[in-house]
């Protein structure tokens, strides 16, 4: 049962189905910015709901295919009642894919009888849960209630806000987060009368100003002119430009942003016994925006263009803040909030980690695949076990089309380096991009049996069309048309087509020139299945003058290499030209003609040990013994 005693000025609320293993980074920042002047508490009601329905079921719902909006649909019934279609119809058409747009990705399970009954039970529990949450907030009697509104938690937040406003009519209800950006935020406040104000972008400074202004006079009607904030009276006219308001909220000097406060979450983890069996983590921040996206946006990137501006904390601030967070929350793993980090930022991270007596586990850090191998080794030496990386494809042609700024060999090199360093790469294999060459997918399908000793993708399937992405904003230029919100939105929100168009984050589309994606990716999908199945048993590594090949997952081949061929193989540990191989051989006092080197290269390619792309060569053999390097801790 939820309990809390005491009154506060500001209640910051984190609702289901946000991950219960981590606090809200945004709310941690907001609390830190105002706690010296006001009494403020973060209510992680998502943790309570996970305890209520069980961690496994909560995870299953929270990680369900995001475009199906499952988490939001479970709370939508309480919020909208009979205004939305029946739950049974939603399960049949959306979750089980009987609408063409929601056909299940090849690795998505359908809803069986047992899971269906579990979902019905969860939906029944939402009313009592919301009543409990409402009772606690009403008892605390805050002047301001602010909700973080990310994916999977919009309807639960709206349902609680609606209840609170009925009882606490003078409380200021504020929303902010990814679901509030641009026109989505305008529609959200327009069609939910219990929301008083909403932040359309980064809320660090604007929320602090809002709290100071409102608590001074507590008059909702007089609030106005806070950069990045939109108020109810603002939407009554037609002069709101959400994109201008969003750009007004950017924090350009991150050194002025406070260190987040996670004390409420830490206390909750200590109090709730079920959390003792989990592995909670807290966020740290080094930068915002994307240093690559600032130069060239990936065509599917859903981060709005104004928030792509790369900003970072200075070296000293990163080091001191990370040490502070680790020392204050010693029982927690760490998760980086950064979209992408550059080399200098990583150097600051490595310095901070290397000086800590206790090396914290970092469960999330996002990098580009062209990260320097020495940097990767340093991160691994500091205790890093896994990395999130934007690989997306192993075809240089496809990577060029989507604007990744790397080629196929670089991506494969990264996977190989991760295996050698003992770091688990978390990555997606995407397809279905407009104008992609079909031949690239047959080539990648044929390549996969050679890569089974490298970590397979976590997700593989069509790319998702997100609001704010270049494909969404310039569809004609990128070869797509007929953009529409996923049908799932109609089963969650009772609004007309125009409103849903502005409300949605995820969209379906058609190609201007037809592409039969299912057909030309079929062989690739089959081989990815094989890859995932075979990976735990697969290996390709050196043993004296042998290469041990267990990539089939069944047989073990011992490939004996003559001294020159072994030297050529090791000289190709990273992408290199023929001339580069010859130079590396000279450095170890092996002088051979190009013809002799070509013969060794041909032998290595024949056995699938060496890849060739244009004039570049890459050995697939790892230096460490493969059976000790599965990286799946």
Describe the protein's topology:
Layout: E1 10-14, H1 25-34, E2 40-44, H2 45-53, H3 55-62, H4 70-80, H5 87-95, H6 113-140, E3 144-148, H7 154-167, E4 172-176, H8 182-190, E5 197-199, H9 204-217, E6 229-231, H10 242-247, H11 263-271, E7 281-284, E8 287-288, E9 311-312, H12 315-328, E10 333-336, H13 343-354, E11 362-364, E12 366-367, H14 373-381, E13 386-389, H15 396-402, H16 408-421, E14 424-426, E15 428-431, H17 438-447, E16 459-462, E17 465-466, H18 470-473, E18 480-485, H19 497-503, E19 506-511, H20 517-520, H21 522-534, E20 540-543, E21 546-549, E22 557-560, H22 563-571, H23 578-587, H24 594-606, E23 610-613, E24 616-619
Parallel strand pairs: 1-2, 1-3, 3-4, 4-5, 7-10, 10-11, 12-13, 13-14, 15-16
Antiparallel strand pairs: 5-6, 8-9, 17-19, 18-19, 20-21, 21-22, 23-24
Helix pairs in contact: 1-9, 2-3, 4-6, 4-7, 6-7, 12-13, 13-14, 14-16, 17-21, 22-24
Structure description:
It is built from 24 helices and 24 strands. The protein is an alpha/beta fold and 633 residues long. The strands form 8 sheets. The protein has a 6-stranded mixed β-sheet, sandwiched between helices. Strands 7-10-11 form a 3-stranded parallel β-sheet, covered by helices on one side. It is globular. 45% of the residues are buried.
How helical, in percent, are the residues? 25-40%
Average residue-wise pLDDT: 93
Rough shape? globular
Distance between the termini: 34 Å
Please give the number of β-strands.
Answer: 24
Radius of gyration: 26 Å
Find the structural class using helix and strand composition.
Answer: alpha/beta
Q: What ranges have pLDDT less than 50 throughout 5 or more consecutive residues?
A: 625-633
């Amino acid at each position: 049962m939820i309990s809390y005693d005491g009154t506060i000025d500001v209640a910051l609320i984190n609702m289901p189905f946000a991950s219960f293993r981590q606090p809200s980074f945004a709310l941690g920042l907001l609390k830190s910015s105002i706690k010296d002047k006001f009494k403020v508490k973060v209510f992680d009601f998502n943790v309570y709901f996970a305890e209520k329905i069980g961690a496994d079921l909560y995870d299953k719902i929270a990680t369900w295919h995001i475009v199906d909006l499952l988490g939001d649909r479970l709370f939508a019934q309480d919020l909208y009642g009979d205004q939305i279609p029946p739950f049974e119809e939603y399960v049949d058409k959306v979750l089980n894919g009987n609408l063409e747009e929601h056909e299940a990705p090849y690795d998505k399970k359908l809803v069986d009888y047992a899971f269906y009954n579990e979902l019905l039970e969860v939906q029944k529990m939402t009313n009592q849960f919301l009543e409990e949450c409402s009772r606690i907030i009403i008892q605390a009697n805050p002047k301001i209630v602010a909700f973080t509104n990310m994916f999977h938690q919009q309807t639960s937040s709206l349902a609680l806000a609606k209840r609170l406003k009925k009882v606490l009519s003078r409380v200021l209800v504020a929303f902010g987060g990814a679901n509030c950006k641009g026109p989505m935020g305008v529609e959200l406040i327009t069609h939910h009368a219990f929301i008083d104000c909403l932040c359309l972008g980064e809320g660090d400074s604007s929320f602090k100003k809002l709290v100071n202004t409102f608590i001074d006079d507590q008059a909702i009607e007089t609030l106005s002119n806070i950069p990045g904030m939109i108020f109810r009276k603002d939407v009554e006219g037609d002069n709101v430009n959400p994109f201008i308001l969003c750009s007004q909220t950017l924090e350009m000097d991150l050194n002025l942003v406070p260190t987040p406060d996670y004390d409420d979450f830490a206390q909750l983890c200590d109090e709730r016994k079920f959390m003792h069996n989990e592995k909670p983590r807290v966020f740290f921040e080094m930068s915002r925006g994307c240093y690559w996206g600032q130069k060239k946006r990936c065509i599917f990137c859903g981060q709005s263009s104004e928030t792509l501006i790369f900003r970072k904390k200075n070296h000293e601030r990163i080091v001191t803040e990370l040490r502070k967070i680790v020392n204050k929350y010693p029982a927690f793993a760490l998760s980086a909030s950064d979209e992408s980090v550059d080399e200098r930022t990583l150097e600051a991270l490595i310095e901070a980690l290397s000086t800590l007596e206790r090396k914290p586990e970092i469960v999330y850090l996002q990098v580009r695949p062209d990260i320097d191998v020495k940097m990767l080794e340093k991160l691994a030496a500091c205790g890093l076990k896994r990395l999130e990386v934007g690989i997306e494809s192993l075809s240089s042609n496809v990577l060029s089309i989507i604007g990744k700024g790397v080629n196929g060999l670089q991506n494969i090199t990264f996977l190989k380096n991760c295996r050698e360093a003992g770091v688990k790469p978390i990555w997606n294999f995407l397809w279905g991009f407009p104008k992609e060459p079909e031949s690239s997918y047959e080539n990648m399908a044929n390549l996969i049996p050679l890569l089974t000793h490298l970590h397979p993708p976590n997700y593989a399937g069509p790319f998702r069309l997100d609001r704010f992405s270049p494909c969404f904003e310039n569809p004609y230029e990128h070869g797509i048309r007929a953009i529409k919100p996923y049908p799932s939105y109609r089963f969650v929100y009772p609004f007309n087509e125009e409103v849903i168009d502005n409300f949605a984050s995820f969209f379906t589309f058609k190609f201007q020139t037809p592409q039969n994606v299912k057909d030309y990716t079929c062989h690739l999908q089959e081989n990815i299945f094989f890859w995932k199945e075979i990976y735990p048993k697969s290996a390709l590594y050196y043993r004296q003058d042998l290469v041990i090949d267990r990539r089939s997952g069944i047989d073990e081949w011992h490939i004996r290499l003559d001294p020159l061929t072994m030297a050529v193989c090791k000289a190709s540990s990273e992408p290199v030209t023929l001339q580069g191989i010859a130079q590396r051989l000279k450095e170890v006092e092996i002088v051979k003609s190009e013809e002799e080197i070509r013969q060794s290269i041909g032998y290595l390619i024949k056995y699938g040990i060496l890849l060739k792309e244009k004039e570049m060569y890459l050995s697939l053999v790892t230096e460490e013994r493969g059976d000790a390097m599965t990286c799946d801790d």
